[in-house]
Amino acid sequence: MCMAINTAKFGFIKRDTPREINLDPLQTGGILTPEARQALQEWGDGYSVCDYCGGALDQIKTPPIFDFINKALPEFLGCDQARVTNGAREAKFAVMHAVCKEGDWVVMDGNAHYSSLVAAQRARLNIKLVEKTPAPEYKILPEKYAEAIDAVKRESGRAPALALLTYPDGSYGNIADAKAISKIVHDNGIPFLVNGAYAIGRMPFNAKELGADFVSGSGHKSMASSGPIGVLGVSNQYAPKVLAKSPTNKNKEIEFLGCTARGATIMTMLASFPAVYERTRPERWQKEVEDARWFSGQLESLGLKQLGDKPHDHDLMFFESMPFYDISQKADRYFLYREMKARSIHGIKPGLTKNFKLSTFGVGREKLGIVVDAFKEILQKYST
């Protein structure tokens, strides 16, 4: 017997979040350009680019996906070869699954995103976390990688199969010394993966200059793309393993299950790429850093405390916000979210008052001033 399904809840659903000013680290670098919004409409039907595919996504000449994946993207990432993936986590897993064997060890920083750990667990690897410094800095020091590698050698009798660095980390926005870490890792004969989910598309980035054998990036976090979509960069040394093709389906690459981003995701990435390329120029990035530092100073003048690197070198920042937490003990834990929402400012998750993350990327000094004024107004309102 066929049962009637109630579809009243579905159909077009308006996004119920204010977006006049967006400070959400997950979204600031992923806000679509006008060209990408047009592409989303044009290419949103199913696997739209498959109309043009002869069996391999990276070989599609029209639209110019071939030129993007095989020419522009490797140059942009500073690597030999590149692919698009369904997200940075899929890129990390592809590397781990291709170059490691079950039971191998991977060393990664203590600030690593949870998806790095899950990717390693899915590949059935053992994980050694590199110790971070205590609060308030939470730094990842190169010498701690050497200690972690030595610990794995003592515990397992062999070197780790892979080392991973989060650059910057997604909690504090700290940027570790990737070059120094790369030297330590390579001196031990270990390949090096840099997770640049909050770097690639926001700031100058070059895999070879960092000493990375692999890099992963996020289109929906940092490349103004409709997600989920990611990018993967690979050196020629490891490309035969990571980009290996199926013996039964000879134009399908095994680690990507044949195809990855095939529709609006890849087409919005292509549409935004000219703007993304321009915004990662050093002078543009320096302006972003200056805005972030100014914003941090303004919030600290209100009694908040920025954790992590100081002076800060990234737009993502973590604040300890005891003045708002103290207010929440008298009001309620959602007051700050409501107050910011009423001012069309998005980015602080509901219920957070003791600490929170914010990103200043692309917001600009004028709008950041509005945010600072909003924090001041809220503190004054609840202090009376």
Topology:
Blueprint: E1 21-22, H1 34-42, H2 65-77, E2 81-85, H3 88-99, E3 105-109, H4 114-122, E4 126-130, H5 142-156, E5 162-166, H6 178-187, E6 192-195, H7 207-210, E7 214-218, H8 219-222, E8 230-234, H9 239-242, H10 264-279, H11 282-300, E9 305-307, E10 316-320, H12 322-328, H13 335-342, E11 345-346, E12 355-359, H14 365-383
Parallel strand pairs: 1-11, 3-4, 3-5, 5-6, 6-7
Antiparallel strand pairs: 2-8, 7-8, 9-10, 10-12
Binding site for pyridoxal 5'-phosphate: 88-89, 195, 218-220
Cofactor: pyridoxal 5'-phosphate
Protein name: O-phospho-L-seryl-tRNA:Cys-tRNA synthase
Walk me through this protein's architecture.
- With 384 residues, the protein is of the alpha/beta class.
- It has 2 domains: 21-29 and 281-383, Aspartate Aminotransferase, domain 1, CATH 3.90.1150; 43-279, Type I PLP-dependent aspartate aminotransferase-like (Major domain) (Aspartate Aminotransferase, domain 2), CATH 3.40.640.
- It is 39% helix and 13% strand.
- The chain has helices at 34-42, 65-77, 88-99, 114-122, 142-156, 178-187, 207-210, 219-222, 239-242, 264-279, 282-300, 322-328, 335-342, 365-383, and strands at residues 21-22, 81-85, 105-109, 126-130, 162-166, 192-195, 214-218, 230-234, 305-307, 316-320, 345-346, 355-359.
- Strands 2-8-7-6-5-3-4 form a 7-stranded mixed sheet, with helices on both faces.
- Helix 1 (34-42) packs antiparallel against helix 10 (264-279) and helix 11 runs parallel beside helix 14 (365-383).
- The chain is globular, with a radius of gyration of 22 Å.
- 46% of the residues are buried.
- The modification N6-(pyridoxal phosphate)lysine is found at residue 221.
